[in-house]
Fold this sequence. Notes:
CATH class of the largest domain: Mainly Beta
Number of helices: 1
Oligomer: single chain
Helix content: under 10%
CATH architecture of the largest domain: Distorted Sandwich
Amino acid sequence: MRSLFLLGLLIIVIVTSNLAWGQNLPSNTSLTVEVLPSYYSYKADDGTTVVLGEVQNNNNFPITDVKVGISFLNDNDNTIEYKTGTTLLHVVPAGGKAPFSISSSKSDPSITQVSAKMAGFISSSAREQALDVSPGLLQVSDKLIFSGTIKNNGVIKSPNTKIYLVSYDAFQRVVGIGTSDSLDVDSGQDVKFSITATSNSRAKSYMVIAESDTYQSKLVDVPNVQVTLPVAISNILVTDPQGNKYSTIPTGAPVKISSELKYIVNKAQQSFVYYVQVKQFDGQVTFIGKHEGIFLGAGDQSISVTWTPDTSGSYYIETYVWNSDNIPLSSSGTRINVVLVKS
Protein backbone atom coordinates (compact mmCIF):
# COMPACT_ATOMS: atom_id res chain seq x y z
CA MET A 1 0.00 0.00 0.00
CA ARG A 2 2.81 2.42 0.92
CA SER A 3 4.44 1.76 -2.47
CA LEU A 4 1.18 2.44 -4.30
CA PHE A 5 0.72 5.66 -2.34
CA LEU A 6 4.23 6.89 -3.18
CA LEU A 7 3.75 5.98 -6.85
CA GLY A 8 0.49 7.91 -6.98
CA LEU A 9 2.10 10.92 -5.30
CA LEU A 10 4.96 10.84 -7.81
CA ILE A 11 2.50 10.83 -10.74
CA ILE A 12 0.66 13.84 -9.27
CA VAL A 13 3.96 15.75 -8.85
CA ILE A 14 5.04 15.01 -12.44
CA VAL A 15 1.67 16.03 -13.93
CA THR A 16 1.52 19.17 -11.79
CA SER A 17 5.09 20.14 -12.78
CA ASN A 18 4.30 19.72 -16.48
CA LEU A 19 1.19 21.86 -16.19
CA ALA A 20 3.11 24.64 -14.47
CA TRP A 21 5.82 24.55 -17.16
CA GLY A 22 3.18 24.67 -19.93
CA GLN A 23 1.68 27.85 -18.47
CA ASN A 24 5.05 29.59 -18.90
CA LEU A 25 5.18 28.99 -22.67
CA PRO A 26 4.76 32.06 -24.91
CA SER A 27 1.15 32.66 -25.88
CA ASN A 28 0.04 32.48 -29.50
CA THR A 29 -0.23 36.28 -29.48
CA SER A 30 3.52 36.66 -28.82
CA LEU A 31 4.26 34.56 -31.91
CA THR A 32 2.58 37.18 -34.11
CA VAL A 33 5.51 39.57 -33.65
CA GLU A 34 8.54 38.43 -35.59
CA VAL A 35 11.94 39.45 -36.82
CA LEU A 36 11.68 39.22 -40.59
CA PRO A 37 14.15 36.56 -41.78
CA SER A 38 15.75 38.84 -44.37
CA TYR A 39 18.07 40.63 -41.92
CA TYR A 40 21.49 41.77 -43.11
CA SER A 41 24.88 42.14 -41.41
CA TYR A 42 28.21 43.75 -42.26
CA LYS A 43 31.52 44.79 -40.69
CA ALA A 44 31.69 48.47 -39.79
CA ASP A 45 34.85 50.54 -40.19
CA ASP A 46 35.65 50.07 -36.50
CA GLY A 47 35.49 46.28 -36.86
CA THR A 48 32.19 45.77 -35.06
CA THR A 49 29.45 43.71 -36.67
CA VAL A 50 26.24 45.60 -37.51
CA VAL A 51 22.91 43.82 -37.96
CA LEU A 52 20.06 45.55 -39.82
CA GLY A 53 16.54 44.27 -40.18
CA GLU A 54 12.84 44.78 -39.53
CA VAL A 55 10.30 43.63 -36.96
CA GLN A 56 6.80 42.83 -38.21
CA ASN A 57 3.85 43.39 -35.85
CA ASN A 58 1.07 41.08 -37.04
CA ASN A 59 -1.23 41.96 -34.13
CA ASN A 60 -4.29 44.20 -34.37
CA PHE A 61 -2.86 46.46 -31.65
CA PRO A 62 0.33 48.57 -31.40
CA ILE A 63 3.36 47.33 -29.44
CA THR A 64 6.26 49.03 -27.69
CA ASP A 65 9.45 48.18 -25.78
CA VAL A 66 10.32 45.78 -28.61
CA LYS A 67 13.50 43.83 -27.92
CA VAL A 68 15.48 41.98 -30.58
CA GLY A 69 18.10 39.45 -29.50
CA ILE A 70 21.20 39.09 -31.67
CA SER A 71 23.59 36.15 -31.40
CA PHE A 72 27.00 36.91 -32.89
CA LEU A 73 28.50 33.56 -33.93
CA ASN A 74 31.73 32.13 -35.31
CA ASP A 75 32.15 29.59 -38.11
CA ASN A 76 31.39 26.73 -35.72
CA ASP A 77 28.06 28.26 -34.60
CA ASN A 78 29.51 29.11 -31.20
CA THR A 79 28.13 32.30 -29.63
CA ILE A 80 30.79 35.00 -29.28
CA GLU A 81 28.36 37.60 -27.94
CA TYR A 82 24.65 37.97 -27.29
CA LYS A 83 23.11 41.43 -27.29
CA THR A 84 19.61 42.88 -27.26
CA GLY A 85 18.46 46.07 -28.93
CA THR A 86 15.24 47.75 -29.91
CA THR A 87 13.52 49.07 -33.01
CA LEU A 88 14.10 52.63 -34.17
CA LEU A 89 10.39 53.31 -33.77
CA HIS A 90 9.33 53.39 -30.14
CA VAL A 91 5.82 52.27 -31.12
CA VAL A 92 5.24 49.70 -33.88
CA PRO A 93 1.72 50.18 -35.30
CA ALA A 94 -0.77 47.35 -35.62
CA GLY A 95 0.11 45.41 -38.76
CA GLY A 96 3.18 47.59 -39.27
CA LYS A 97 6.95 47.19 -39.52
CA ALA A 98 9.84 48.95 -37.83
CA PRO A 99 13.57 48.79 -38.67
CA PHE A 100 16.36 48.04 -36.20
CA SER A 101 20.13 48.45 -36.14
CA ILE A 102 22.16 46.55 -33.53
CA SER A 103 25.95 46.36 -33.32
CA SER A 104 28.29 44.02 -31.47
CA SER A 105 29.94 45.58 -28.43
CA LYS A 106 33.47 45.08 -29.71
CA SER A 107 35.51 44.31 -32.78
CA ASP A 108 35.99 40.55 -33.09
CA PRO A 109 37.17 39.02 -36.40
CA SER A 110 35.92 35.59 -35.31
CA ILE A 111 32.31 36.81 -35.71
CA THR A 112 31.31 35.48 -39.13
CA GLN A 113 27.53 35.01 -38.84
CA VAL A 114 24.57 36.27 -36.86
CA SER A 115 21.15 35.09 -35.70
CA ALA A 116 18.24 37.41 -34.81
CA LYS A 117 15.15 36.55 -32.74
CA MET A 118 12.41 38.35 -30.84
CA ALA A 119 13.28 38.86 -27.17
CA GLY A 120 10.18 40.68 -25.93
CA PHE A 121 7.56 43.41 -26.35
CA ILE A 122 4.48 44.83 -24.63
CA SER A 123 1.21 46.23 -25.96
CA SER A 124 0.94 50.00 -26.39
CA SER A 125 -1.55 52.74 -27.01
CA ALA A 126 -1.63 53.94 -30.61
CA ARG A 127 0.61 56.81 -31.70
CA GLU A 128 -1.28 59.03 -34.14
CA GLN A 129 0.22 59.24 -37.63
CA ALA A 130 -0.05 63.02 -37.73
CA LEU A 131 3.36 63.65 -39.30
CA ASP A 132 3.43 64.09 -43.08
CA VAL A 133 6.84 63.52 -44.72
CA SER A 134 7.36 64.97 -48.22
CA PRO A 135 10.54 63.44 -49.71
CA GLY A 136 12.77 65.65 -51.82
CA LEU A 137 15.82 64.65 -53.87
CA LEU A 138 17.99 61.74 -52.78
CA GLN A 139 21.51 61.97 -54.21
CA VAL A 140 23.37 58.65 -54.23
CA SER A 141 27.15 58.41 -54.56
CA ASP A 142 29.58 57.29 -51.84
CA LYS A 143 27.21 59.15 -49.51
CA LEU A 144 23.43 59.49 -49.37
CA ILE A 145 22.33 63.12 -49.31
CA PHE A 146 18.60 63.38 -48.73
CA SER A 147 16.32 66.33 -48.08
CA GLY A 148 12.62 66.95 -47.64
CA THR A 149 9.99 68.59 -45.47
CA ILE A 150 7.94 67.32 -42.56
CA LYS A 151 4.62 68.77 -41.46
CA ASN A 152 2.91 68.36 -38.11
CA ASN A 153 -0.83 67.92 -38.73
CA GLY A 154 -1.49 67.21 -35.07
CA VAL A 155 -3.03 69.54 -32.50
CA ILE A 156 0.02 69.63 -30.22
CA LYS A 157 3.76 70.06 -30.66
CA SER A 158 5.88 67.22 -32.06
CA PRO A 159 9.06 67.25 -29.94
CA ASN A 160 12.20 65.20 -30.61
CA THR A 161 11.10 64.37 -34.14
CA LYS A 162 13.48 62.08 -36.01
CA ILE A 163 13.30 61.07 -39.66
CA TYR A 164 14.76 57.74 -40.78
CA LEU A 165 15.93 56.97 -44.33
CA VAL A 166 15.82 53.19 -44.87
CA SER A 167 17.71 51.55 -47.78
CA TYR A 168 16.53 48.23 -49.23
CA ASP A 169 18.28 45.85 -51.61
CA ALA A 170 16.63 43.90 -54.44
CA PHE A 171 15.47 41.26 -51.92
CA GLN A 172 13.83 43.90 -49.67
CA ARG A 173 16.47 43.51 -46.98
CA VAL A 174 17.35 46.60 -44.96
CA VAL A 175 20.96 47.42 -45.95
CA GLY A 176 21.27 50.93 -44.57
CA ILE A 177 19.65 53.40 -42.17
CA GLY A 178 20.24 57.15 -42.03
CA THR A 179 18.89 59.40 -39.28
CA SER A 180 18.16 63.14 -39.19
CA ASP A 181 18.95 65.46 -36.33
CA SER A 182 16.20 65.75 -33.73
CA LEU A 183 13.61 68.42 -34.61
CA ASP A 184 10.81 70.15 -32.72
CA VAL A 185 7.82 70.77 -35.02
CA ASP A 186 4.96 72.95 -33.81
CA SER A 187 1.36 72.11 -34.64
CA GLY A 188 0.63 73.02 -38.28
CA GLN A 189 4.31 73.81 -39.00
CA ASP A 190 6.37 72.71 -42.03
CA VAL A 191 10.08 72.09 -41.32
CA LYS A 192 12.86 71.23 -43.75
CA PHE A 193 15.20 68.38 -42.88
CA SER A 194 18.29 66.72 -44.33
CA ILE A 195 20.03 63.39 -43.84
CA THR A 196 23.59 62.44 -44.79
CA ALA A 197 24.42 58.75 -44.49
CA THR A 198 26.77 56.09 -45.81
CA SER A 199 25.68 54.57 -49.12
CA ASN A 200 25.41 50.83 -49.73
CA SER A 201 25.94 49.79 -53.36
CA ARG A 202 23.41 46.97 -52.87
CA ALA A 203 20.56 49.43 -52.26
CA LYS A 204 17.86 49.50 -54.93
CA SER A 205 15.01 51.38 -53.21
CA TYR A 206 14.50 53.79 -50.32
CA MET A 207 11.76 54.56 -47.81
CA VAL A 208 11.40 57.25 -45.17
CA ILE A 209 9.52 57.28 -41.85
CA ALA A 210 9.36 59.67 -38.89
CA GLU A 211 8.50 59.50 -35.20
CA SER A 212 8.46 61.94 -32.30
CA ASP A 213 7.51 61.78 -28.64
CA THR A 214 3.88 62.35 -29.65
CA TYR A 215 3.34 61.36 -33.31
CA GLN A 216 4.46 59.16 -36.18
CA SER A 217 4.33 59.21 -39.97
CA LYS A 218 3.51 56.50 -42.46
CA LEU A 219 6.33 54.67 -44.26
CA VAL A 220 6.76 56.67 -47.49
CA ASP A 221 8.54 55.76 -50.74
CA VAL A 222 11.40 57.99 -51.95
CA PRO A 223 10.74 58.39 -55.70
CA ASN A 224 13.25 61.07 -56.70
CA VAL A 225 16.65 59.31 -56.68
CA GLN A 226 19.70 60.62 -58.54
CA VAL A 227 22.56 58.11 -58.76
CA THR A 228 26.13 59.22 -59.41
CA LEU A 229 28.34 56.17 -59.85
CA PRO A 230 31.90 56.58 -58.52
CA VAL A 231 33.80 55.53 -61.67
CA ALA A 232 33.78 57.13 -65.13
CA ILE A 233 35.11 55.29 -68.22
CA SER A 234 36.62 57.35 -71.05
CA ASN A 235 39.12 57.30 -73.95
CA ILE A 236 38.45 53.72 -75.07
CA LEU A 237 41.06 52.67 -77.65
CA VAL A 238 41.49 49.56 -79.81
CA THR A 239 45.16 49.12 -80.83
CA ASP A 240 47.93 46.61 -81.31
CA PRO A 241 50.04 45.74 -78.22
CA GLN A 242 52.39 48.69 -78.94
CA GLY A 243 49.51 51.18 -79.02
CA ASN A 244 49.29 51.60 -82.79
CA LYS A 245 45.81 51.81 -84.31
CA TYR A 246 44.69 49.04 -86.63
CA SER A 247 43.20 49.86 -90.03
CA THR A 248 41.84 46.30 -90.07
CA ILE A 249 42.52 43.62 -87.49
CA PRO A 250 43.95 40.32 -88.78
CA THR A 251 42.57 37.14 -87.21
CA GLY A 252 45.03 35.69 -84.73
CA ALA A 253 46.53 39.12 -83.96
CA PRO A 254 46.39 40.40 -80.36
CA VAL A 255 44.14 43.41 -79.82
CA LYS A 256 44.71 45.76 -76.90
CA ILE A 257 41.47 47.32 -75.58
CA SER A 258 42.31 50.12 -73.16
CA SER A 259 40.34 52.71 -71.16
CA GLU A 260 40.93 55.57 -68.77
CA LEU A 261 39.15 55.14 -65.45
CA LYS A 262 38.47 58.10 -63.18
CA TYR A 263 37.55 57.38 -59.55
CA ILE A 264 35.75 60.42 -58.16
CA VAL A 265 35.34 59.27 -54.55
CA ASN A 266 37.97 59.98 -51.92
CA LYS A 267 37.60 56.57 -50.30
CA ALA A 268 40.72 54.98 -48.85
CA GLN A 269 40.45 51.82 -50.95
CA GLN A 270 38.07 50.37 -53.53
CA SER A 271 38.71 47.12 -55.39
CA PHE A 272 37.27 46.87 -58.90
CA VAL A 273 37.00 44.63 -61.95
CA TYR A 274 37.23 46.15 -65.44
CA TYR A 275 35.32 44.03 -67.96
CA VAL A 276 35.58 44.03 -71.75
CA GLN A 277 32.85 42.27 -73.71
CA VAL A 278 33.15 41.70 -77.46
CA LYS A 279 29.99 40.83 -79.38
CA GLN A 280 29.17 40.02 -82.97
CA PHE A 281 26.58 42.26 -84.59
CA ASP A 282 23.85 39.67 -83.98
CA GLY A 283 24.49 40.03 -80.22
CA GLN A 284 26.40 36.78 -79.72
CA VAL A 285 29.18 37.17 -77.15
CA THR A 286 32.57 36.27 -78.58
CA PHE A 287 34.89 37.30 -75.74
CA ILE A 288 34.83 38.46 -72.13
CA GLY A 289 38.05 39.67 -70.56
CA LYS A 290 38.74 41.35 -67.25
CA HIS A 291 41.36 43.25 -65.29
CA GLU A 292 41.23 43.41 -61.49
CA GLY A 293 42.60 46.42 -59.65
CA ILE A 294 42.34 48.73 -56.65
CA PHE A 295 41.67 52.45 -56.39
CA LEU A 296 43.61 54.06 -53.55
CA GLY A 297 41.59 57.23 -53.16
CA ALA A 298 40.36 59.48 -55.93
CA GLY A 299 42.39 59.46 -59.14
CA ASP A 300 42.90 58.05 -62.65
CA GLN A 301 44.07 54.66 -63.90
CA SER A 302 44.84 53.36 -67.39
CA ILE A 303 43.55 49.80 -67.83
CA SER A 304 43.74 47.36 -70.72
CA VAL A 305 42.62 43.85 -71.70
CA THR A 306 43.94 41.81 -74.65
CA TRP A 307 41.64 39.99 -77.08
CA THR A 308 42.81 37.71 -79.89
CA PRO A 309 40.04 37.25 -82.52
CA ASP A 310 39.92 33.89 -84.28
CA THR A 311 37.01 34.53 -86.67
CA SER A 312 36.62 37.25 -89.29
CA GLY A 313 33.60 39.54 -89.17
CA SER A 314 32.22 42.71 -87.65
CA TYR A 315 32.12 43.23 -83.90
CA TYR A 316 31.40 45.82 -81.23
CA ILE A 317 33.00 46.29 -77.82
CA GLU A 318 31.44 47.14 -74.44
CA THR A 319 33.29 48.07 -71.25
CA TYR A 320 32.16 48.06 -67.62
CA VAL A 321 33.57 48.52 -64.12
CA TRP A 322 32.06 46.51 -61.25
CA ASN A 323 33.12 45.81 -57.71
CA SER A 324 34.00 42.34 -56.40
CA ASP A 325 30.31 41.69 -55.58
CA ASN A 326 29.31 42.27 -59.24
CA ILE A 327 27.68 45.60 -58.43
CA PRO A 328 28.29 48.35 -61.02
CA LEU A 329 30.72 51.12 -60.11
CA SER A 330 30.24 52.85 -63.47
CA SER A 331 27.89 53.23 -66.35
CA SER A 332 28.96 51.27 -69.41
CA GLY A 333 31.65 52.96 -71.48
CA THR A 334 31.00 54.34 -74.95
CA ARG A 335 30.40 51.40 -77.25
CA ILE A 336 32.92 50.86 -80.04
CA ASN A 337 30.43 50.06 -82.76
CA VAL A 338 32.53 48.52 -85.53
CA VAL A 339 35.67 46.46 -85.35
CA LEU A 340 36.50 44.80 -88.69
CA VAL A 341 38.44 41.55 -88.47
CA LYS A 342 39.85 39.93 -91.62
CA SER A 343 41.54 36.61 -92.30
